[in-house]
Design brief:
- This protein is of the alpha/beta class.
- It folds into 2 domains: 160 residues, no CATH class; 53 residues, no CATH class.
- Helix content is 18%, strand content 24%.
- It contains 5 helices and 8 strands.
- Strands 1, 2, 3, 4, 5, 6, 7 and 8 form an 8-stranded mixed beta sheet that branches.
- Helix 1 crosses helix 4.
Amino acid sequence: MGLVELDELNRKLTIHARIFIYGDAASPELAINIAQDVEARWNEPGTFISINDNLILVKFSIEGICDPGIVPLTVYTNTDPMNNYFRIEEFASGNISFVDGIGSNTGYFKLDNLLNSSSTAAHEFGHTLGLEHPEILDIRGTGVPGIMYPRGTIVDPDFQYDPAAIPLQQGGTLNPYLRRVLSQDIVSLHLEKINFNENGFGVLGEFSSVWHEKHDP
């Protein structure tokens, strides 16, 4: 979820978001790393969109904050569209990271999914902005996988865990470290449809407002 600022004079649209993390595996360093990774990946394409017949550059401004003192009431009563809340733990049920729906502002991340710029945080951030997994998950012959392709997608050998593996066999699916935010991912946000107020601000996503308890193994 994010606050969208449209500056038509300077032909720039900025999506502002804060990523608050809490839980036993949360740390200030991790919060900064997540925010920097998300911001860098989503800014990489340098995408322009058309609004009111003007070409507008889309930018992302992401802040990461570790707040171990977050309590349920903080999440339930939040009304700031910039704020997203994610619990970080070493264990997650189902062994996956997730958000609480498409266009949400809360979720639960498994620590090892986030390490070494895995792209998981950027992928889940895409869900908070309203993007779903693509329907076709065999994308051989199309090159670099977009950020919203999930683990298990069939890709060209260069984008598998093991380039020599047979597709769908061990090592023969998408290595999430190698997916990238593409211009089409940003176009798919349909930012031109946002209702901006008189000051040029609008909202992308919705308040799911779920505070997560720690999962037990």
